[in-house]
Amino acid sequence: MTNRTGGVVLLSLLLAGFLLLSALPNQMASIRIGGLSVLWWYGGVIAPVTSVLVAIRWLADALPASPRDE
Q1: Residue 33: beta bridge partners?
Q2: Where are any strands of DSSP class E within the chain?
Q3: Which of 4, 28, 40, 58 lies in disulfide reach of 36, CB 3.0 to 4.6 Å?
Q4: 67 within a domain of the structure (yes/no)
């Protein structure tokens, strides 16, 4: 598995995590932390921040080689 494939898999799991969290029984995702629900924290803070870190780490292209002066 390449770095890019791993990054895409991680981003897909982050998206699926929101759906799985919202499908938990007994409205477990509506538990409040700091006045906001766990689902809000995941969808509004945790998943976006983690997605940015994954995109930077695994999806960013390598920097192009600098041209050599001859």
Answers
A1: 36
A2: 32-33, 36-37
A3: 40
A4: no
Domain count, the chain: 1
Instruction: Flag whether 52 is in a domain.
Output: yes
Render pLDDT for 2-60 as a digit per residue (tens, 0 to 9): 778 888 899 999 999 999 998 989 988 889 999 999 999 999 999 999 999 998 888 77
pLDDT of residue 68 exceeding 80? no
Two tokens at 52?
């940015």
- Could you give the C-alpha distances from 12 to 20, 25, 66, 69, in angstroms and in order? 12, 22, 34, 43
Question: In this structure, is residue 66 part of a structural domain?
Answer: no
Rounded distance between C-alpha atoms, residue 3 and residue 30, angstroms? 35
Q: Is 68 domain-assigned?
A: no
